[in-house]
Write a structure and sequence with these properties.
The complex is a heterotrimer. By secondary structure, chain A is of the alpha+beta class. In chain A, 17% of the residues lie in helices and 17% in strands. Chain A has a four-stranded mixed sheet. Chain A has a three-stranded antiparallel sheet with strand order 3-2-11, with no helix packed on it. Chain B has one domain: Up-down Bundle (Formate dehydrogenase/DMSO reductase fold). Chain B is globular, with a radius of gyration of 23 Å. Chain B has 14 helices and no strands. The chains are: A alpha+beta, B mainly alpha, C mainly alpha. At the A-B interface, strand 2, helix 2, helix 3, strand 6 and strand 11 of A face helix 5 and helix 6 of B.
Chain lengths: 248, 430, 76
């Protein structure tokens, strides 16, 4: 059984947020949901100002607070390390969201009326722009069931009243592909691989680079390692946060 | 005495204009709440003011969760009163034991209903909790101990304690005689039966008492175990919930007892001694709660981690200060009123009712202060601060639930004596 | 001398507590290694939590059994 982990090289990230777009397209997430998010930080005062970037996927913790508190076992950790949500079991109590210190959970406050895929064929705007020729599209992999229990965990399922979050693109990982954010980064900030394999790229990177994990002091044991940088201090200011505010 | 129209005790079966007006108000509230819930079901939880914390800048839990805690807290009343009568032998509390028990049952049901209002998938919630509930989750205790165990134990107690009155009521001719006969289930009020009931009530009270502490503590642990949430992670959370539940529950029962005494035109029932005892209990619990709050604020503000200190500041002097000080001011005022009565030895029912209402203001304000600030301002990562303003839908659903509670108590009053019938009018052997 | 009525109540109480213990410790609680394995995200037996709740209810029903146990021959 592999032990999946992700490394994020902070010295390479330039804050283009291409990973966020890749994630939205791959997982068809509704408006204002960012399963992958990139903080843009500003530190110190002019003229010493420093701007830096910190991508924030789900940390897929080994001691995940969200898994511990889920009352029905809808949020669970697979043996290969992926922390997933069973969209058909979730009752929508949002306890996982409250327990998670990273803020990676997004609740479906309504049925999404705008999504990244064109699976909403009755949208008149899509119809008029494409002269009714664009076929509806839906990633077929996201409809499959994964894991020994065959639970419905892949993204692109956006039922009203259930929680959703980064799945490490389980439907791609199961096919041997990298998560969408990893594959789409123009400067290779992310690496994804097996910690148990000493020759995997994440094992090599972790051997040769200084690294930290986000909010390690909370005892969550995250599976996402940040290379070449420092955790954000409480003094950093977030600049250019996403607009997505109250729409849900 | 059969055949003659007899006035049933405590206004059972007699419909007055005031009662009708109250029922109309309560039913209207229920209607508004049902309408609001229909809107929430059609539009989805987007109809509430709740949003995700983090990039979306909202609060994930809000009014519903605060009122789950509040309703479950009010349920403290019945079981305490019952336990004190049986275990400590405070017999002058006996007349209010039924209304206290009823309050417990009603408020637990309201708590369960507000859980359903909060869930994104309420139907799945009912099915999956029974099917998959995991003991690792703090919700397991809330769900099994509070909503199932506590409620069921209260129902058993309520049923058994009502058998004697049901037997007495069955002596009078009335359209509900079948109900009284079924409830009495063969009870004849013989000395053996009385002794048996006393014995089992004692053991039942003894069995429910730990359940009381467990139930309110598990609700506190829902918050107290969240290590990543400043303002929640505290060992004082569970005992604090037990004490604040006592404050709101006893405050509530004082108001209800006074309302009964006034509306039924009873001069000396419940006795002043019962009110005095409730006032003293409220005084002691209120002082303990103030002490808990001070200890918690000092710990968080003096030695807490950075985010803990920020949150303490926010609550004490920042954005949430008006709510916090309203709550604490109300409790301070209630304690002042109670202490002055205790010191002078002269207890007055209007002042006791005022302190009961103030105690419940505290309970609501403090629950909101526990739930919301940590979600809008308590992020450990540098997300922006959030904001939460409840929508009318949330307010209407909560008001509807309160109306439902009032309606249940009002209807029950007319079907069954709300207070223990003092003594059999005469020995009746049918 | 324990009456028949008390025996019945005790029996119901014991049955309730036994059901609670068994359904909690054996059927619902995720003992096993490794404890975080996905196998333990489910109760051992579906509806074990319901059994636990029924156990709590049965335990408290003992009081009803004690009071409603039919009286025989007019004396206990």
């Amino acid at each position: 059984m592999p032990r999946y982990a992700m490394t994020i090289d902070l010295s390479r990230c330039m804050g283009c947020r291409a990973c966020m777009v890749a994630c939205k397209v791959e997982n068809n997430t509704p408006e204002a949901h960012f399963w992958m998010y990139v903080f843009r930080f500003e530190e110190e005062e002019y003229p010493k100002t420093r701007v830096w970037f910190l991508p924030r996927p789900c940390q897929h913790c080994d001691n995940a607070p969200c898994v511990k508190v889920c009352p029905v076992g809808a949020r669970y950790k697979r043996d290969d390390g992926l922390v997933l949500t069973d969209f058909q079991r979730c009752i929508g109590c949002r306890y996982c969201e409250v327990a998670c210190p990273y803020g990676v959970n997004y609740f479906h406050w309504k049925h999404p009326d705008k999504a990244q895929y064109l699976d909403y064929t009755d949208d008149p705007e899509v119809k008029s722009r494409t002269n009714n020729t664009m076929p509806p599209y839906r990633n077929p992999d996201a409809d499959l069931r994964y894991g020994p229990e065959e639970r419905l965990t892949a993204g692109a399922h956006h039922y009203r009243g259930v929680i959703g979050k980064c799945t490490f693109c389980v439907h791609r990982v199961e096919k041997g592909l990298e998560p969408a954010c990893v594959a789409n980064c123009p400067v290779r900030v992310f690496e994804f691989g097996d910690l148990d394999d000493p020759n995997s790229i994440v094992s090599q990177k972790l051997r040769t680079n200084p690294h930290f994990r986000l909010l390690e002091e909370e005892g969550t044991k995250p599976r996402v390692y940040y290379l070449m940088g420092n955790p954000p201090s409480p003094e950093v200011r977030q600049v250019m946060p996403v607009k997505g505010g109250k729409r849900g | 005495m059969s055949g003659r129209a007899v006035a049933l005790p405590y206004g059972v079966g007699r419909i007055s204009l005031g009662w009708l007006a109250l029922v109309a108000i309560a039913a209207a509230l229920v209607g508004v709440g049902a309408f609001a819930y229909a809107i929430q079901e059609l539009e989805g939880p987007i109809a509430t003011g709740l949003r995700d914390w983090g990039t979306m800048g909202g609060a994930t839990w809000g009014l519903y969760v605060s009122f789950i805690v509040y309703f479950v807290g009010v349920s403290f009343a019945g079981i305490t009163v019952a336990a004190l009568i049986r275990i400590l032998g405070l017999t002058y509390l006996r007349p209010i034991s039924r209304v206290a028990e009823l309050l417990t049952i009603v408020s637990l049901i309201l708590g369960a209903l507000s859980v359903l209002a909060d869930l994104g998938q309420p139907l799945r919630g009912i099915a999956n909790l029974f099917r998959y509930a995991r003991p690792q989750s703090p919700f397991f205790g809330t769900f099994t101990m509070v909503i199932a165990g506590y409620l069921f134990a209260s129902l058993v107690y309520f049923y058994l304690a009502g058998r004697r009155d049901a037997y007495l009521m069955a002596q009078y001719p009335s359209p509900l005689r079948w109900l009284y006969r079924a409830w009495a289930a063969g009870y004849q009020d013989t000395p053996e039966e009385k002794a048996r009931h006393e014995r089992i009530s004692f053991w039942l009270a003894l069995g429910i008492l730990p359940l009381l502490v467990i139930a309110h503590s598990t609700l506190g642990l829902v918050f107290g175990l969240m290590g990543g949430r400043p303002g929640w992670f505290s060992a004082l959370q569970a005992p604090g919930f037990v004490v604040l539940a006592g404050v709101s529950g006893i405050g509530h029962i004082i108001v209800l007892a006074a309302l009964l005494r006034w509306s039924l035109g009873l001069r000396d029932q419940p006795e002043m001694a019962a009110f005095r005892w409730l006032g003293q209990a409220l005084l002691v619990l209120g002082i303990i709660y103030i002490y808990f709050t001070i200890v918690e604020m000092v710990t968080a503000g003096y030695a807490g981690r950075e985010h803990e200190q920020r949150l303490a500041k926010l609550v004490l002097v920042g954005y949430y200060a008006p709510f916090f000080w309203t709550g604490m001011g109300a409790l301070g005022l209630a304690i002042g009123l109670l202490a002055s009565q205790a010191l002078s030895g002269r207890w007055s029912i209007p002042l006791l009712v005022a302190s009961g209402i103030l105690a419940n203001v505290t309970a609501v304000a403090k629950r909101l202060i526990i739930v919301v600030p940590s979600l809008t301002h308590g992020s450990l990562l540098p997300y922006g601060i959030g904001m939460y303003i409840p929508t009318w839908v949330e307010g209407a659903i909560i008001a509807g639930l309160m109306g439902l509670g009032a309606l249940t108590i009002l209807l029950f009053m007319k079907a069954f004596p709300i207070m223990e019938v003092p003594a059999p009018v005469e020995e009746v052997r049918p | 001398m324990i009456s028949r009525r008390a025996w019945a109540a005790l029996l119901v109480l014991t049955a309730g507590i036994a059901l609670m213990v068994v359904s909690y410790l054996v059927l619902a609680a995720p003992w096993g290694f490794p404890p975080e394995s996905e196998k333990f995200s489910n109760p051992r037996l579906a509806f074990a939590p319901l059994l636990f709740i029924i156990g709590v209810m049965i335990a408290f029903l003992a009081a009803v059994v004690y009071e409603l146990w039919p009286q025989r021959g007019g004396k206990e």
